[in-house]
Amino acid sequence: MGRGDGTGRLVSAEGADDTGTGILHVDMDAFYASVEQLDDPSLQGKPIIVGAPEGRSVVSSASYEARRFGVRSAMPVGQALRLCPTATVVLPHFDRYLELSGRVMRIFRDVTPLVEPLSIDEAFLDVRGVRRLWGSPGAIARDLRARVLDETGLTCSIGVAATKHVAKMASTISKPDGLLIVTEADTAAFLAPRSVRALWGVGPKAAEALEGRGIRTVADVLDSPREVLDRVLGPAMGERIRHLARGIDARSVDTRRVEKSIGHEETFDEDIADPAILRSELRRLADKVGARLRGAGWEASTIAIKVRYADFSTTSRSQTLPEPTAVGQRIGDAAHDLFAAVDHHLPIRLIGVRAEKLRTAGSAPLALWDDDAEWRRIEDALDGAAAKFGRGAVTRGTLLGKARGGGSLPSSPPPPTLDQG
After folding, report:
1. Quick check: is 203 in a domain?
2. Which end of the chain offers a freer environment for a tag, N or C, measured as fewer CB atoms within 10 Å?
3. pLDDT grade, residue 367 (50/70/90)?
4. In which band, very low, low, confident or very high, does the pLDDT at 407 lie, cut at 50, 70 and 90?
5. Annotated catalytic residue: which of 116, 122, 265, 266?
6. To 5 degrees, how large is the angle CA 228–CA 194–CA 411?
7. What pTM did the predictor assign?
């Protein structure tokens, strides 16, 4: 398995067999960092870290040159610089990332209408129906990689397989700038030696629980009795992992997929213990989340907060709302309720607000009355002012004053909306 820094990568030979395949997972290589290197050629081939150089921001992305020193996304920039003192820190330019992401997604849709964006820099493609136009899945993947490089200057890695799960694993192993094809017949042999951590949906805690019982590879999963997996993971998750370990994944490429969540978080220049300041920051982040929801035409059914303390321990809480909303005031109220239930034993270095379980705005049944009607009118007016004068031209009086961090960052910038025309 590739280690995220490019070592241990596997790629397919030119003209490799692609029998039984049809699903592509395309993943841009170190996307943010690669865009910065593209726009500033002096950074090419050098270790770079995308994040705020001042304060205590976290790494948004790192070039492969920096990753080989152990630098990883979400790591504090200070820690990353201790691992790689020669790295250059560059500020993120999300508008530029979105622009290039849009161009890449349009290239995908030139090949097939069956495109499922997973994030700003990766997507699934179902190419089984376009073989007569473009050739076999392996040929399509090779042409896509060449076209993305030619039209954007960026490299991508592609996994080609019979299912989404195996295609995603293959693209990860082939990074950076690689192509790995796993035929349907070779799927079992491909999966058997992989770590259980490579299985889609197995997080760190589940992986530790499995490994604690000697279940370290996919082959170990296949050899484990059903009751053992059910006891470790629960019956539903155990059944899912058994299927994935056998290469069974019935999920199709979903062109109607919407983002699972929208969030903003802030890392403070100094740890903050004052609850009033923290509540004010939660309100500001909630307003940003609400604005993004309204801009995308979504509402959220669940609100969550994230709190990271001075000792780097992290906690999160979530709350399901009575009705879905895109109103910043309502999101902020929920965030305040959640924060009140969080332990305040240490000063806080990072705080975040996230909207989850998204649905199309207006799709919920209408309530007898609208408690948010007045706030909705106010926020619609703020949206209009932002469109005319720029975001931040009008804000709450309680949010005026000195910034306490490097500026809130979207915790997962959304993929651009695909042009259906």
Report:
1. yes
2. C
3. very low
4. low
5. 122
6. 90
7. 0.72
